[in-house]
Recover the amino acids of this structure.
């Protein structure tokens, strides 16, 4: 039976790839790639994840992490909002992306922010991205099968450098260097995988992310709105840009005046 | 006064928790334990009461490891210690599982102290009758650390400390003679402190040394005997040096 994992997201799943840490995939989370559909609630959650519009992506490069997302929310064929904040600021050095149920993502990210702050206060040091993503994934695992729909990426900078994890409501958690989640993700992956280099400058990386989101919104009807790009560096995250994808379209593909082959002229008055 | 020590959840009129104070008495009767923090090692030493001939001395390890980088020695009720150590070991692994990082010494000390405090504020239970000396290296910064907890649930960090029988004299000795040391010097300082209150000889002392690279290592009886011999020699030399000038004058 095809693992439902494949149907839901287009996360890195090819073995031997740089996209994920294979130790995590095989050792700690053997179930991630053999998930069978458990319970009807999670089936609906899967469907929700598939249908709800998202084009979010994140990748690690030499200077840090880039996180980008669109801003459209849709209910079936109806676009309910073009200005949804899909990149959630957990704390000044960690970001989370929203995919799946908006309420679930927003609530649990805020909850994660609280837990991270409490960890800081108790231990007098910031929590690592590893720790924060593990806290979230353990919480989501305990609600497994109850209908939560969350497909989020936790990106941040900690003592070990840049960190990027994908966490979902099945309780799965993957460490990786490039992720894209949502209905627009196949298109985003195409552009992202093609243009990715580890040693890019921050501007180049931001431009790559912007283009990837734009292309996802171009082809996927359920993604659109504003392409937001964030950069997470050693000093924390910074919003790089937020461009309307309609305007981006004309920036990438400006209207070229077509040469006129034949022009109609007025017939001379007889 | 006698009315206020049955259920420990009550304070006495003058603000004492008698059960906690009685637990501290139990600690004072336990065998001596000392911990010394050096720049690159931390040393724990405990007094070993003479083992009966038929007892397998290896089964009564008084210095135990909680994780690869954390160790603990205690003075007081050994059975209580076993319970606390088991809970601490589970917490060390649980922490590794939930945040994918080893515990810091401060974290696990806080956990053990929190556990000890819980038992001073519950009905029908008595406090743990032991003070623990917890040593380890911080997994991030690599700094050595030594902490002490007591039955009331308080904890603090120390450069060197002693607990158990005659801990006051050991602490006085340490206060007079402590200086930043490393390696073998730290071990010698710990043994010298223990020798203040314990009959000399490797049979009566158990020493363990923790380094960042190799973790916890229990010293063999022969090694301890060798160091004790060195210390005695140094003492004798110091005595002779003291006497020599007076002879001249």
């Amino acid at each position: 039976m095809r693992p439902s994992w494949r149907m839901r997201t287009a996360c890195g799943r090819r073995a031997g790839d740089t996209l994920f840490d294979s130790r995590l995939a095989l050792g700690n989370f053997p179930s991630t790639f053999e998930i069978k559909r458990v319970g009807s609630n999670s089936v609906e959650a899967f469907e929700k994840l598939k249908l709800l519009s998202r084009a979010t992506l994140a990748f690690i490069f030499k200077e840090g992490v880039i996180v980008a997302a669109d801003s459209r929310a849709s209910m079936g064929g109806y676009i309910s909002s073009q200005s949804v904040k899909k990149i959630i600021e957990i704390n000044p050095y960690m970001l989370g992306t929203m995919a799946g149920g908006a309420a679930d993502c927003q609530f649990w990210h805020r909850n994660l922010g609280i837990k991270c702050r409490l960890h800081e206060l108790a231990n007098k040091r910031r929590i690592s991205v590893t720790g924060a993503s593990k806290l979230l994934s353990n919480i989501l695992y305990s609600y497994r099968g109850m209908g939560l729909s969350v497909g989020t990426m936790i990106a941040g900078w900690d003592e070990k450098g840049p960190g990027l994890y994908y966490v979902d409501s099945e309780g799965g958690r993957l460490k990786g260097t490039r992720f894209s989640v949502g209905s627009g993700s196949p298109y985003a992956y195409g552009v992202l995988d093609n243009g990715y280099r580890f040693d890019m400058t921050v501007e180049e990386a931001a431009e790559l992310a912007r283009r990837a989101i734009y292309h996802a919104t171009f082809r996927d009807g359920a993604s659109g709105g504003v392409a937001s790009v964030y950069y997470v560096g050693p000093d924390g995250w910074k919003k790089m840009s937020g461009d309307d994808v309609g305007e981006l379209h004309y920036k990438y593909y400006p209207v070229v005046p077509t040469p006129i082959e034949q022009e109609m002229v007025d017939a001379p008055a007889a | 006064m006698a009315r206020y020590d049955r259920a420990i959840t009550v304070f006495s009129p003058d603000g004492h928790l008698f059960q906690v104070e009685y637990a501290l008495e139990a600690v004072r009767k336990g065998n001596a334990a000392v911990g010394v923090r050096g720049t690159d090692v931390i040393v724990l030493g405990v007094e070993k009461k003479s083992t009966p001939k038929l007892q397998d001395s290896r089964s009564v390890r008084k210095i135990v490891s909680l994780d690869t980088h954390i160790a603990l020695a205690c003075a007081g009720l050994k059975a209580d210690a076993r319970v606390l150590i088991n809970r601490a070991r589970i917490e060390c692994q649980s922490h590794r599982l939930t945040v994918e990082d080893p515990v810091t010494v401060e974290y696990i000390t806080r956990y053990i102290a929190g556990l000890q405090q819980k038992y001073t504020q519950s009905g029908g239970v008595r406090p743990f009758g032991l003070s623990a000396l917890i040593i380890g290296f911080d997994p991030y910064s690599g700094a050595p650390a030594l902490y002490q907890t007591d039955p009331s649930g308080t904890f603090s960090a120390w450069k060197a400390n002693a607990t158990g029988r005659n801990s006051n004299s050991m602490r006085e000795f340490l206060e007079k003679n402590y200086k930043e040391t490393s390696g073998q010097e730290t071990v010698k300082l710990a043994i010298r402190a223990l020798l203040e209150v314990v009959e000399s000889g490797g049979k009566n002392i158990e020493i363990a040394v923790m380094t960042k690279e190799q973790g916890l290592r229990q010293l063999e009886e022969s090694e301890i005997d060798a160091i004790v011999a060195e210390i005695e020699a140094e003492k004798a030399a110091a005595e002779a040096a003291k006497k020599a000038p007076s002879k001249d004058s």
Summary: The longest helix of chain A spans residues 102-123. The CA atoms of residues 67 and 147 of chain A lie 27 Å apart. The two ends of chain A are 79 Å apart (CA to CA).
